[in-house]
Amino acid sequence: MQELAGYTLFLEKEIEKLEFPSSPSNLYDPLRYFMTLGGKRMRPILTLLGAELFGEKIENALPAALAVEVFHNFTLIHDDIMDEAPKRRNKQTVHTKWNRNIAILSGDVLFVQGFQLLAKQKSEHLSSLLDLFNKTAIEVCEGQQLDMDFESRQNVSIPEYIEMIRLKTSVLLGCALEMGAIVANAEKEDRRFLYDFGQHIGIAFQIQDDILDLYANPEKFGKQVGGDVISNKKTLLNLKAFDMADSAQRIILNQLALEKDAVLKVTKTRELYDLIGARSACEVHMQEYYSHAMQSLSKVNTPEKSKLPLIALADFLMKRDI
Amino acid sequence: MQELAGYTLFLEKEIEKLEFPSSPSNLYDPLRYFMTLGGKRMRPILTLLGAELFGEKIENALPAALAVEVFHNFTLIHDDIMDEAPKRRNKQTVHTKWNRNIAILSGDVLFVQGFQLLAKQKSEHLSSLLDLFNKTAIEVCEGQQLDMDFESRQNVSIPEYIEMIRLKTSVLLGCALEMGAIVANAEKEDRRFLYDFGQHIGIAFQIQDDILDLYANPEKFGKQVGGDVISNKKTLLNLKAFDMADSAQRIILNQLALEKDAVLKVTKTRELYDLIGARSACEVHMQEYYSHAMQSLSKVNTPEKSKLPLIALADFLMKRDI
């Protein structure tokens, strides 16, 4: 993502500058730790690009960009508790390194700090920013709840799954972009097109994530390849496979779900998915959302040249192998 | 609290009107349940009274009042998880009735709804309201963290304890009042005096809470009398007792902390506290904070008559037996 390296560097420096009080250390040490664990910083980059698209200096959208990143990290801290995840980006999660109560409360305080950052934007934009941010935060919680609900449900349809990832992942990408556009005083219609671009890229990104979980290069992938298969997680890959399987294949898929040998389970499942054509079917879906995103972007009323960084980011997200 | 019954009734009706989506039901059912469990609704009443004190219609401060109540309930849902409390107001807590993950996420979404309510206030007040609300929310989290930290600490001083209850409980009372004053366009100096009134009443209120836990009438008290003693919780009563005890009494206090028979433990501890004079010492403290609160209120530049509802509320809080 060479074209965007400048934005990432700028953001990393600003994230390092975020100040957390020294006391109570059990509340703020986890935040100092977690906020500098890294990551692609994709969401705040979107806010900066959203502002720049309409001719605004990126510095003027910085508080909103940081608010989005802080909010995203808050959701990760709480999600990790709920998912009982021991690691995140190859490092211990907050509830593992400290404890669950500290992770709940540190997450809560980080969430407030997101609102504090947002409140640094000009007061004329505050009401619009707050409305969008609140609506999005609620949708992200709804998405996480649906994801948890799906664990214990037998039949999850593909539209239901897409709606879940839209809420859990994609709306925040749309929100990040639109917040930049709000700061840049963009027209409502353009804001909406930009939001749709982000939302559709987000869905395509999440489908790519589902595919990578099983098909990534183990040497580059930060976590165990096939983790979703091992834990019988419902993903688009899994739902497509069941949807497209014939009755004999469906019996084997159900048997594989009970397989105890993790390596065997992953290898056999991948072979069967390939036979069924589940991966290609997911890639078709992903391409559809990507195209829809590009259509939305093309409707934004700014010079085509101004859109190149957003196109570069979208391409990177689609072609990544991690 | 006869003088304030009208405000309570008005608020209960408005709280009932709060709308939660039907789906995902695991996210919103807990909120429908928890928000109507009752309680004194003391904090939103303070916001309404804060607005009325400066001649504003209470209806105009309603969103801010509801935001405070919603925020308070969010903290209760998360605190109950951290404290592993099975009951709240004689009813099951959210994490007991549903599960811990649902309680984390329902709490998160309720918190956002607090900000959504706040955003309904006029945009000219939004920046001030948000700054105060954010600062307070962070302090409340800090107070909860200190409270948890104290559990595993041997020596907690009385000033440290007072600072903890100031953060955990009192700042929200000050905030609730000042939000009403902001909506009513009160002068900054008056806002500050009113905040101080709330903060000091809050500390007195919490000291009263500590005393009631051991000295309440069991027939009126909603929970087990002596619960703090049984769990060896650090309270002002407990810290004062250790502080004032002679060396022989201190040995007995340490022995009583290990006592397994709950009834015996509570009875013997109460007898010893009385002998030491811990309750009276706490009441002196409580009276000091009450007097300080009244001094702050007297400095607010409005007719004395306008302050009567606030004085009635403060008196009720000090004289309550539940």
What can you see in these coordinates?
Two copies of one chain form a homodimer. Chain A is mainly α. The longest helix of chain A is centred in the middle third of the chain and has 29 residues, at 123-151. Chain A has 15 helices and two strands. The radius of gyration of chain A is 20 Å and the shape is globular. The mean pLDDT of chain A is 95. The first copy, chain A, has one domain: Farnesyl Diphosphate Synthase (Orthogonal Bundle), CATH 1.10.600. In chain A, helix 3 runs antiparallel to helix 4 and helix 11 (236-244) crosses helix 14 (278-299). The first copy, chain A, has a two-stranded antiparallel ribbon. The two termini of chain A are 13 Å apart. Chains A and B meet through helix 4, helix 6 and helix 7 of A and helix 4, helix 6 and helix 7 of B.
Fraction in helix of chain A: over 70%
CATH architectural type of chain A = Orthogonal Bundle
The CATH H-level superfamily of chain A is Farnesyl Diphosphate Synthase
Question: Over all CA atoms, what is the radius of gyration of chain A?
Answer: 20 Å
Number of domains of chain A: 1
Describe the biggest sheet of chain A?
2 strands, antiparallel
Strand order of the largest sheet of chain A: 1-2
Q: Tally of extended strands of chain A?
A: 2
**CATH fold call of chain A:** Farnesyl Diphosphate Synthase
Biggest interface between chains: A-B, 33 and 33 residues
Beta percentage of chain A is under 5%
Low-pLDDT residue intervals, each spanning 5 or more residues of chain A:
none
Distance between the termini of chain A: 13 Å
What is the H-and-E element order of chain A?
HHHHEEHHHHHHHHHHH
CATH class of chain A: Mainly Alpha
**Overall pLDDT of chain A:** 95
Q: Find the structural class of chain A using helix and strand composition.
A: mainly alpha
SS element count, helices of chain A? 15
Oligomer: homodimer
